[in-house]
User: What shape does this take?
Amino acid sequence: MNVSLYIAKRYLFSKSSNNSINIMTIIAASGTVIASAALFIVLSGFAGLKTFSLEFSSFVDPDLKVVPSKRKSFTLSEKDVLAIQSIDGIQGYSKIIEERVILEFDNKHQIVTLKGVDENFTKITAIDSRIYYGNWLERGTDQIVSGGGVSRKLSYGTLDLTRHQKIYVPKPGKGQITSVKGAFTTVKAYNVGILDINEELNNEYIFSNIETARYLLNYDDNQVSSLEFKLTTGVDQAEVASALQTALGNAIEVKDRAQLNDALYKMLNTENVAVYLIFTLVIIIALFNVIGALIMMILDKKESISTLFNLGTTTKDIRRIFFLQGSLMTILAGTIGLALGFIIVFLQKQFALIMLTPSLPYPVELKVVNFVIVILTIVVLGLLASKLASQRITKNLVKG
Assistant: This one.
């Protein structure tokens, strides 16, 4: 095996007497370098885009969220509160009442999602940091904070004390509606802040104090739509989720941040896999050049192969020589390409060489998993290509 490796290295780094074979070898190696570098750069770019996309939802999504498994709300008893307080790893939690409502301003209407929150909500999430105009809610008031899309559609700003917003929620019951007053519970509210989170949430959400939402929905004092939790840094999230499930029973579900954004995670992961497969196909095409170059080398070294055979080297050993030569070529070229890709990604991360906007650099992220993916892809496909090329060596070719 050591002899085969020694000869393979000699063949790899020595020039052929045929200049066209040297050119083909350079093209094959260069293609592998470029393909592996491109794969690493694209994977790093998608990792950066994924982090960038999820960054906005992290402002409003808690570490864990408890929601009812079947109904729209559940009752949080004193026993439940004590059980939650006994769980290690919970830094704090907020009670939430959430429902679809009708928002009216200046004879214009929009169906939005009202999220009633208690005083702990800004400690659980960084929602107040996304207010770009106005302020967050004051306790004990019927104030609201709106998403930017909602405020634009209904054409209102903040702190307009001469005009107010109206929130309507249908009253539960049956029978014919005879008047708006009898059919809806209504609250007059004043918008005090405008949020910018992401397009979907900006067009969908308004926030109020939990007392306002409780009055609109006629909920009891201990009735909530969900609980949102902030965990202590470094705690095992799965253990806390399991403890919450045990404490609150089967009537609730515990969801982490990924489960709350499962559609977004699935979309990003699907795109990542699709791009990986496309660039893997590019590597496969590049490795066809390696196969061609190896076959040309085999034909060029025909006399040397015959000499080795006459000296007692078996056909299997000769195949191993060219298998190792092809494998070394692809692994070496792939490593150079990976190093090149790392340098480009590092420079982009440090110096923002490519900009999406004048103030926003294209996001990239260096991850160990991307190094492993590129290396494994190059090694597996390189070994396969080398195996296919080395199988061209037969006893008839050696003897000839």
Remarks:
- The CA atoms of residues 239 and 270 lie 28 Å apart.
